[in-house]
Amino acid sequence: MATDKMYERTEDGVTTHVSIREAMAEVNHAMMDGKRDVREMSSGRDRHWIDYKDGRSVRLTLVDAPAETAAEDVKEWSGTASNGTHVHRFDAELKALCNRRIRSRGAGRVSGALVGHGNLRSRREIESSEYAYLYTFCSKCEDK
Ligand SMILES: [Zn+2]
């Protein structure tokens, strides 16, 4: 999977991330319609800077988009040994958020080390599987 690209936009020391489309819109505007507001600019393949006549200085640099993990992509859901399809959210100790006595399916200790994290799945994984209809999400865990 290709890494998403975006622009880091720095204006007077304040850096934000903008989409390539937004960055190109600003560069194109500075070169065309907004030209009279520009004191000086430089545009390269993945780096642009624009100094505006009003004193603003904008730097745009193409960067890899930060890897963001959406909440539904965090692997923390699992059923239990007795009920594999009613899924709870588990913490790092594989204890359910709604009730610390509930342990995830497959959780156990091997030579003192906690195992079973591999059974945890993200909400998106469960909802996009062909067996999604079998699963119910614990509402107490959802609210945590
Ligand atoms: Zn729960």
List keywords for this structure.
4-stranded mixed sheet; 144 residues; 3 helices; 5-stranded antiparallel sheet; elongated; alpha+beta; binds zinc ion; 2 domains
Write structural notes for this entry.
The protein is α+β, with helices and mostly antiparallel strands and 144 residues long. It is built from three helices and eleven strands, in the order E-E-H-E-E-E-E-E-E-E-E-H-E-H. The strands form three sheets. It has a five-stranded antiparallel beta sheet with strand order 2-1-5-4-3, covered by helices on one side. A four-stranded mixed beta sheet has the order 10-6-7-11. Strand 4 and strand 5 form a beta hairpin. The structure holds zinc ion. The site of zinc ion has 6 residues, from helix 3.
Strand-helix topology:
Layout (H helix, E strand, L loop, with lengths): L4 E7 L2 E5 L1 H12 L6 E6 L3 E6 L4 E8 L10 E4 L7 E4 L18 E3 L2 E3 L5 E2 H6 L7 E2 L1 H5 L1
Parallel strand pairs: 7-11
Antiparallel strand pairs: 1-2, 1-5, 3-4, 4-5, 6-7, 6-10, 8-9
Bound molecules: zinc ion.
Terminal-residue CA separation: 32 Å
Q: Work out the count of structural domains.
A: 2
The helix content is: 10-25%
Work out the radius of gyration.
24 Å
In short:
16% of the residues lie in helices and 35% in strands. By secondary structure, it is of the alpha+beta class. The mean pLDDT is 91.
